[in-house]
Specification:
The structure is a homodimer of 273-residue chains.
Chain A: E1 11-15, H1 21-30, E2 36-40, H2 52-68, E3 73-76, H3 79-84, H4 86-89, E4 97-98, H5 101-111, E5 116-121, H6 123-128, H7 130-138, E6 143-148, H8 152-157, H9 164-178, E7 184-188, H10 196-203, E8 208-210, H11 212-226, E9 239-243, H12 247-257, E10 266-267
Parallel strand pairs in A: 1-2, 1-3, 2-9, 3-4, 5-6, 5-7, 7-8, 9-10
């Protein structure tokens, strides 16, 4: 834990694009006094179809950028980067870095009754089997069934979350999983909570849906408490948004997800970090 | 025209990902003696949702990379980069650079009988109105109707080109255009020829479908002839593939598009150029 960081220093939160806003929203709700610096890598979105080496390089550049903002903790609000880069990048900085996989896995292990857990995620997240490994460490008897759903991110990014076509794509990707005995499903990509009601309707009440954002914010709170780093200021918290491309489109999207005016996002040339 | 370039020097062809292979395929067909160096920017695909500044920066880096391969001509086999970056980058190099927009526009102007031309493309290509401007220069009376189809690229990249869901997405995007008087439609993104038969079936025989790849290869031939730069060697031509990410996935895709074994694609850290 970095001791020279001020309690009023912000939390750094990053994602490949807009998906991580679902995590930022949960942090704002649970930790309303914390300032946030959010970075969305919109120039290189999506991450889910890309390789481990590039995801590590992208994550490293973003952490260097967040360090210039003197953040006191970093949340990788992207399942793909949490699965592929967290273990490497957390060794390279003094700032505590947490991802979304361990919190999501823990929530699923606590929720399941029969030990059969589904994970929907990007191609890279599922292929890495990180959720499977983390869940098995917590419960060696657990059965984990992963399914890559690569079109979910573009459907959300292009504004089709509530469109009929999305129902059909859910059906194409998740019908096989509905035939299994899963009683718990992890939304293993931060874009997927934006399809939550559709996915819940598809599986029905028997399947408990886990959004790792809630547990991730809880973990962040614990990390800050343990380091004595909570923001005790009574000033209104701020959230600044940075992106690597298309700032206007991002701001428009952010305003549909967040409950207040996100303001204008600022453009960063992330390849320079 | 660069005079010190050897006739056996390769043609550089680049795209945001696999889409430009439809152009490379046409060059191989029309210019079977020319060697090709293909670069697919798979680390930053898709381009169509990104800004002019970033598309110019990406294109500049790729041209620097292709210069290290001593190419004698460059084909921007990507409509988004042709629309947003060609004018800027062609001033910055001695190597002739051609894009796909002028050839595609010319083919459409020659094909149309009533002067009403449709253009399907990415968000960035359509918003730039480059096709409209280029067509109007050739035929000031032409009416151009553009339509962004942002889900077509992920559908192709994720292997859904022949899936029923793609028919529905075609219907969602192009139904309005079918109600207009267009008699010619430009496939204004190099991924879209992979949906050609579906789009042709949707519009029926009344609408002529233009794939700019054919005219682009013709233009390239003309540029090489004018510069006396055709490859007159009788050795078998070669094609080398480079990508910025996920080389294996790219090679797999290339083998489904090309009529011969594309071999392994090599990985390049494009941000270093």
């Amino acid at each position: 834990m970095k001791n020279n960081s001020s309690n009023t220093a912000p939390i750094g939160v990053f994602d490949s694009g807009v998906g991580g806003l679902t995590v930022a929203r949960e942090i704002m709700r649970q930790l309303p006094h914390e300032n946030i610096v959010y970075f969305g890598d919109t120039a290189r979105v999506p991450y889910g179809s890309k390789s481990r080496d590039n995801i590590i390089r992208f994550s490293r550049q973003i952490i260097h950028f967040l360090e210039t903002k003197e953040v006191k903790a970093i949340v990788i609000a992207c399942n793909t980067a949490s699965a592929l880069a967290l273990e490497t990048v957390k060794e390279e900085t003094d700032i505590p870095v947490i991802g979304v996989i361990v919190p999501g896995a823990r929530a699923a292990v606590q929720a399941t009754r029969n030990g059969v857990i589904g994970v929907a995620g990007t191609e890279a997240t599922i292929r890495s089997e990180t959720y499977t490994k983390v869940i098995r460490k917590m419960n060696p008897q657990a059965v984990v069934i992963g399914k890559p759903c690569p079109l979910f991110v573009p459907l959300v990014e292009e504004g089709f979350a509530k469109h009929r076509i999305t129902e059909e794509v859910i059906d194409i990707y998740l019908s096989d999983m509905r035939q299994t005995k899963i009683d718990t499903l992890i939304l293993g990509c931060t874009h997927y909570p934006l399809l939550r009601s559709r996915i819940m309707a598809f599986f029905g009440e028997k399947v408990h849906i886990v959004n790792p954002a809630y547990e991730t914010a809880m973990d962040l709170k614990k990390v800050l408490c343990e380091g004595g780093n909570e923001n005790r200021s009574h000033e209104a918290a701020s959230c600044q948004f940075y992106v690597s491309d298309a700032a206007e489109k991002f701001s428009h999207f952010a305003n549909t997800i967040l409950s207040y005016d996100a303001g204008a996002a600022k453009l960063v040339n992330i390849e320079e970090y």
